Amino acid sequence: MVVRDLPLGITLILEVGDSEKFVSRFLETAPEEGGHVHEHLLDGQQRLTALWRAFHNNYLDETYFVYLKEFDDHDGDADREEMSVYPFGRYIKKSGDRYPLWCDEPADCLRRGLVPTDLLRPEDVQGVVDQWIDSAMASHEPGEDVVALKKFLERKKRVSDRIRDIRSTVANYNLPYLSLPPRTEKAVALDVFIKMNTNSKPLTTYDIIVAEVESEMGKSLHDLVAGLAQRNPAVARYSDLSDLILTTSALLQGQLPNQRGAWDMDRKRMVENWDTMERGLQQMATFLTTEGIFDDQRLPTNAVLAPIAALYAMDVSESGDKRGRDELVLKKYLWHAFFTDRYENAAATHAFSDFNAIRRVIRQDEKDTGATYQIEDAPIFSEHAVAEAEELLTAEWPKRASIRGRGILAVACRLGALDFSTGQPLGLANIETRHYHHVYPDALLKESKIDSYLALNCALISDKTNIPSVARRRCSI
To answer: Which long-range contacts (CB under 8 A, 24 or more apart) does 269-278 make?
Structure first.
């Protein structure tokens, strides 16, 4: 693309002020010079690394060339496209020689119409270029034949002119970029980077943090997550593990449980707190299971996950009467989240506020007045009323992602959700085999012009229970 002067895509640069917002590292194989860092390359690292390495031809297993058809006198190769860049695989024999040997012989390269890309790098390497051309043309140099000498010099000039023209194109190539000023916040810069990414699978916040952790600490976040999933498989039933890890880790560092909080948290502390975070997630999963919530499909709102996990990780007592009292607070919080409008909007901000307030209650912190914080001091309890009967009567079918509809189903699950036919209670072992069915048949209610797709008309039963004979018997009762 560069040698043809074609667009390569926009890069993203963040200007560095007094301090760096990201950990600096040099492009692979680039010289590591000291001094103040003036810019961070956020988007385009792979492209520029590939360009740097191609223009220095320092890949061990490949050598890159530009193909110039007019100089191709070799019959043994397939047709190639003019001005295209071609890599040739290299390998090292036991003797230590790097094969194929012709890749390092200028005369053999030129005979194939190939010019190594390291001659094109935009640096003062004209001496190296001249030496390569001399070596490539040496075998063609005639004796005293004037006509032959004239042809030789003309060919040599054409080779020199073509390389000079390509070098000029490279040196004057316009690499478009977007530059962010140094006052740009880290979260904003990363958000711009994600939105600029045009791959078929766009990068996520988690992808960026994975790369940062591995760069800064030399640890694989993927390996840590895989270990957590293996040790605590129940956690992943409630949400994508990457989301749970980021939101819970953010809360443990006093940040919002959302993308902004994930950007702002300290990566090193996240890894250092890993065992604490994992313990909190494991106990959160156990707590939800005892409350009759078995997976994300039956969870009214995921806004409660990180606060509950973080509270277990930091503040809930390990055992004894205090453990019981702490979990009663969590239960009240959980069900209020399902039956108030607290998390209908601004869920992360509200979850952060409730988390901090409930922490004070569990830790029995004192106010300025000397009184200890009470559960009523948490906004979810003090500022939001529990849904009234009229709202419950109109709550939507719980298969839809509505907090109130799923909240009603959650109550049924908490109480056992007995199958109509077998009497078998709902549990973790059979939750995935249960189906959403109407208590009163859809057709019957439609005849009466009553909406059948309401949460209060939904039951989780096995598919075998919903056979016609059972359905008729259910309707006649």
So the answer is: 270/209, 270/213, 271/213, 271/217, 271/219, 271/221, 271/224, 273/249, 274/224, 276/252, 276/313, 276/314, 277/245, 277/248, 277/249, 277/252, 277/309, 277/313, 278/228, 278/231, 278/232
Span 130-161, pLDDT tens digits: 999 999 998 888 877 888 889 999 999 999 99
Task: List beta partners, residue 85.
Answer: 66
CB 104 within 8 A of CB 153: no
How many Å separate Cα 360 from the centre of its chain? Answer: 33
pLDDT, tens digit, for every residue of 234-283? 999 999 999 999 999 999 999 999 988 998 899 889 999 999 999 999 99
Provide the whole-model pTM. Answer: 0.63
Closest CA to 213 of 169, 179, 173, 245: 245
Q: DSSP characters for 255-324?
A: --SSHHHHHHS-HHHHHHTHHHHHHHHHHHHHHHHHTT--SGGG-S-GGGHHHHHHHHHHTS-SSHHHHH
Is 307 in contact with 244 (CB distance < 8 Å)? no
Q: Check: CB of residue 301 under 8 Å from CB of residue 336.
A: no
Q: Which amino acid is at 311?
A: L
C-alpha–C-alpha distance, residues 329 and 363, integer Å = 12
Radius of gyration for the chain, computed over Cα atoms and rounded to the nearest angstrom? 34
Q: What is the pLDDT of residues 31-83, one digit of tens each?
A: 877 677 888 887 777 888 889 999 999 999 999 999 999 999 888 777 788 89
